[in-house]
């Protein structure tokens, strides 16, 4: 640390901390919404209806094929106009904040990925699960809530962890729409102190540490969800090895 | 040919020995997989090795081509002592072909390409010559018609025969078989044994780990019985089956022949 | 505003500029894909090395360049490296002194880190028995790698590779922050001139979509060609769009990456 006084450093640290909180808030809000919508969409797309399938294909293809940054810009710049078109005069007066644009964009994009995971997991469930629940005359709501979804989550967990860490790494994009997040704070501090190297490396390490922490939690969660499944899993992997 | 284990006069004529193993030891951690093995194999000799699972028979033949590195004793193959040296290992592997329980064919190559790969890479054969060579050996295992097929399109017995042809294409003087029929459906065992019997008649040195006692009786010059990492009995096929000396071998034969 | 948010006249006018932007995006994709891949091989070998310090070093590289958001990497290279005196004086300043060079460096390092894991996954998936069979044939380690391990690793890792390339292309959209006029930057500048929030961004999005899907299509064809030895599986898979690779279907779930 060459020309940084302690007081300056403390000031920048505070700004970085505030930025980090905003990043975290953005990330958790977006992930929670993407998760809820993703699961709902995933279940909805099990419908055989051609219309539903068609809409799903188009939606998934578009948002999996376009950079998130463009979706953020589109919601940020075009959001009020879109709201205006839907809600009329009232909607047009709502200004979309960078934070709001980020949440909307990430929700729309990542709900597609999560829906895809959920679809895949449901398809991979043994058919007997549905039949068994039906044979026992379990009401559909309970069947989904208590029987199907917990297993779906277990199957989808590795993919969800992937999406989680990928989304985390995309959150800095919202700073390009003007959000004062961790990366924006780091950029300001880097410019003001002429110490970009330190600040950017430190910021990168914050992201890496957060991901490492969440990976650890995820693997703990995985072992918990896997309880009682180990024999089945072992059987499956050995049969794959033999094939 | 009635020969009891290590032929006493063979040692004086090293040129007639294909493999000399003495005092061979192999550990897996604290487990002793091979516990002082002595075995001499003459040129052209056909040996069947049998024994209960975990007796060390696979480990023994896998040591001969250095798929497993031995911890003690010595192995001499065609006059070359097997050391940790990469070049020596390579030299020995040129002389020794191996056929595995699970075939281990290259899934991304056709039958003929499976056979051509090693001759092209090791001996620098041109594609045309390697193809001719491969075709020759595929004919020998009666698979010329299937030369252009990928392994996934062949039955287990056919795959194993391709694996035999692949090993033959390196024109090895010694062939090792590691339970070549154990992974096969019963109806395919005979086509593979048939090919192996034809090979045996051609004079190549064979070491074969197998439980096919009929094959042993028909083909083997000598049968070796292993248990707990040791050679318990080693003698000519006829007396091996008719007059086993040790109780362990008698029990084993009783079990396997019912 | 009419029902359609797109101003067709503006879209038509913007086409040439957007195509220029796409060209820049394509170059910023192609170069790091090549450089990153070239870098990934030695790092992957280090990562899989028995020497602990080497493996740890490689792992640290992967953790950092995979874990750090691309935007921060770009800032780090663009603003951070200029701080280092030796670099500013050295011959590499041609590279680090230009935004384009910085973008290439940051993108390549990021891609390399991802590719180390893709490669490693593919190599680890190669069945051990097949490698052993190649060793038994006396094929050298180098040749085994080139002719057996890599061809199979590519097949096992193709799906992961496709996912990485696709998300990489989308990731390049950030290079406009260091004043490179890629596709996103062109759309942004048209927006700033016209204040039309839809037309330029939607047009750019369409370009990205087309680019990404052409790449997907290419991978699909490549995968089908590589898997011709499993013709049955490929035919069965063709009915399930977006699920190309026949190998390792069960692990697809874990591999859906943005």
How do the strands and helices of this protein lay out in sequence?
The complex is a heterotrimer of chains A (243), B (258) and C (258).
Chain A: H1 6-44, H2 50-64, H3 68-87, H4 89-92, H5 98-124, H6 127-135, H7 140-170, H8 182-193, H9 196-225, H10 230-242
Chain B: E1 17-28, E2 31-42, E3 46-50, H1 57-64, E4 72-77, E5 80-81, H2 86-95, E6 96-99, H3 111-123, H4 127-140, H5 156-168, E7 174-178, H6 186-201, E8 205-209, H7 213-219, E9 222-227, E10 230-236, H8 237-242, H9 247-257
Parallel strand pairs in B: 3-8, 3-9, 6-7, 7-8
Antiparallel strand pairs in B: 1-2, 1-4, 4-5, 9-10
Chain C: H1 8-47, H2 52-67, H3 70-80, H4 85-89, H5 93-96, H6 99-125, H7 128-136, H8 141-171, H9 183-194, H10 199-226, H11 231-238, H12 252-255
Helix pairs in contact in C: 1-2, 1-6, 1-9, 1-10, 2-6, 3-6, 6-8, 7-8, 8-10, 9-10
Written overview of the protein:
The complex is a heterotrimer of chains A (243), B (258) and C (258). By secondary structure, chain A is mostly helical. Chain A has one domain (6-242): MetI-like (MetI-like fold, Orthogonal Bundle). Helices cover 82% and strands 0% of the residues of chain A. Chain A has ten helices and no strands. Residues 230-243 of chain A have low confidence and may be disordered. With 258 residues, chain B is of the alpha/beta class. Chain B has one domain (44-69, 83-257): Rossmann fold. Chain B has helices at residues 57-64, 86-95, 111-123, 127-140, 156-168, 186-201, 213-219, 237-242, 247-257; strands at 17-28, 31-42, 46-50, 72-77, 80-81, 96-99, 174-178, 205-209, 222-227, 230-236. In chain B, helix 6 (186-201) links the parallel strand 7 (174-178) and strand 8 (205-209). With 258 residues, chain C is an all-alpha fold. The two termini of chain C are 34 Å apart. Chains A and C meet through helix 2, helix 3, helix 5, helix 7 and helix 8 of A and helix 2, helix 3, helix 8, helix 9 and helix 10 of C. Chain A: This is Histidine/lysine/arginine/ornithine ABC transporter permease HisQ.
Number of helices of chain A: 10
CATH topology of chain C: MetI-like fold
| SSE sequence of chain A, one letter per element | HHHHHHHHHH
What is the level 1 CATH name of chain C?
Answer: Mainly Alpha
Q: Compute the number of structural domains of chain C.
A: 1
Chain pair with largest interface: A-C, 60 and 49 residues
CATH architecture identity of chain A: Orthogonal Bundle
Strand content of chain A: under 5%
What is the fourth-level CATH superfamily of chain C?
Answer: MetI-like
């Amino acid at each position: 640390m060459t020309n940084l006084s302690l007081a300056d450093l403390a000031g920048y640290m505070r700004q970085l901390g505030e930025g980090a909180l905003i990043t975290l808030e953005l990330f958790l809000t977006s992930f929670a919404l993407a998760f809820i919508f993703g699961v709902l969409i995933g279940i909805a797309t099990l419908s055989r209806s051609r219309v539903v399938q068609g809409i799903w294909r188009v939606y998934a293809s578009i948002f999996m094929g376009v950079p998130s940054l463009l979706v953020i810009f589109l919601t940020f710049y075009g959001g009020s106009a879109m709201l205006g078109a839907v809600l009329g005069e009232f909607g047009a007066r709502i200004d979309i904040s960078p934070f709001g644009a980020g949440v909307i964009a990430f929700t729309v994009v990542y709900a597609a990925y999560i829906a895809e995971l959920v679809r895949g997991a449901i398809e991979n469930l043994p058919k007997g699960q549905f039949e068994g629940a039906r044979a026992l005359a379990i009401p559909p709501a309970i069947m989904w809530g208590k029987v199907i979804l917990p297993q779906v989550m277990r199957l989808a967990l590795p993919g969800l962890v992937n999406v989680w860490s990928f989304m985390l790494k995309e959150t800095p994009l919202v700073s390009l729409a003007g959000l004062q997040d961790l990366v924006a704070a780091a950029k300001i501090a880097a410019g003001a102190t002429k110490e970009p190297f330190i600040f950017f490396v430190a910021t990168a390490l914050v992201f890496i540490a957060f991901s490492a922490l969440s990976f650890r939690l995820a693997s703990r969660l995985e072992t918990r969800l896997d309880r009682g499944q180990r024999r089945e899993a072992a059987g499956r992997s050995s049969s794959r090895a033999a094939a | 040919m009635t020969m009891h284990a290590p032929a006493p006069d063979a040692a004086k004529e090293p040129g007639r020995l294909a493999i000399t193993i003495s005092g061979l030891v192999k550990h897996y951690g604290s487990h002793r997989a091979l516990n002082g093995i002595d075995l001499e194999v003459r040129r052209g000799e056909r040996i069947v090795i049998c024994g209960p699972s975990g007796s060390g028979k696979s480990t023994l033949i896998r040591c001969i081509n250095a798929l497993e590195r031995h911890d003690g004793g010595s192995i001499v193959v065609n006059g070359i002592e097997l050391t940790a040296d990469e070049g020596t290992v390579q030299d020995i592997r040129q002389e020794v072909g191996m056929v595995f329980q699970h075939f281990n064919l290259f899934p991304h190559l056709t039958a003929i390409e499976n056979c051509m790969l090693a001759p092209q890479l090791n001996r620098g054969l041109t594609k045309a010559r390697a193809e001719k060579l491969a075709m020759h050996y595929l004919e020998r295992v009666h698979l010329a018609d299937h030369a252009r097929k990928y392994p996934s399109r062949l039955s287990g017995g056919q795959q194993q025969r391709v694996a035999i042809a692949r090993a033959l294409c390196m024109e090895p003087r010694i062939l090792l078989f590691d339970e070549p029929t154990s992974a096969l459906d019963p109806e395919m065992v005979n086509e593979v044994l048939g090919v192996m019997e034809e090979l045996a008649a051609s004079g190549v040195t064979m070491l074969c780990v197998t439980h096919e006692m009929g094959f042993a009786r028909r083909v083997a010059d000598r049968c070796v019985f292993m248990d707990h990492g040791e050679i318990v009995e080693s003698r000519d096929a006829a007396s091996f089956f008719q007059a086993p000396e040790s109780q362990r071998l008698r029990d084993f034969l009783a079990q396997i022949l019912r | 505003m009419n029902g359609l948010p797109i101003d067709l006249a503006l879209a038509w006018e913007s086409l040439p500029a957007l195509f220029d932007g796409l060209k820049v995006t394509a170059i910023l994709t192609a170069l790091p894909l090549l450089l990153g891949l070239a870098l990934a091989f030695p790092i992957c070998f280090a990562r899989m090395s028995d020497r602990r310090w080497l493996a740890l070093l490689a792992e640290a590289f992967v953790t950092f360049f995979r874990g750090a958001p691309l935007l921060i990497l770009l800032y780090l290279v663009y603003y951070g490296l200029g701080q280092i005196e030796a670099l500013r004086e050295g011959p590499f300043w041609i590279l680090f002194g230009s935004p384009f060079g910085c973008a290439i460096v940051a993108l390549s390092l990021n891609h390399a880190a991802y590719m180390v894991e893709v490669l490693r996954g593919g190599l680890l998936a190669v069945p051990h028995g097949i490698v052993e069979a190649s060793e038994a044939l006396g094929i050298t380690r180098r040749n085994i790698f080139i002719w057996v391990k890599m061809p199979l690793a590519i097949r096992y890792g193709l799906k992961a590779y496709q996912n990485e390339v696709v998300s990489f292309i989308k990731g390049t959209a950030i290079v406009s922050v260091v004043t490179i006029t890629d596709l996103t930057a062109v759309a942004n500048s048209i927006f700033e001139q016209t204040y039309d929030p839809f037309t330029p961004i939607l047009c750019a999005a369409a370009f990205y979509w087309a680019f990404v899907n052409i790449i997907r299509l290419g991978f699909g064809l490549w995968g089908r060609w590589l898997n011709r030895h499993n013709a049955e599986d490929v035919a069965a898979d063709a009915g399930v769009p977006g699920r190309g690779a026949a190998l390792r279907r069960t692990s697809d779930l874990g591999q859906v990456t943005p």
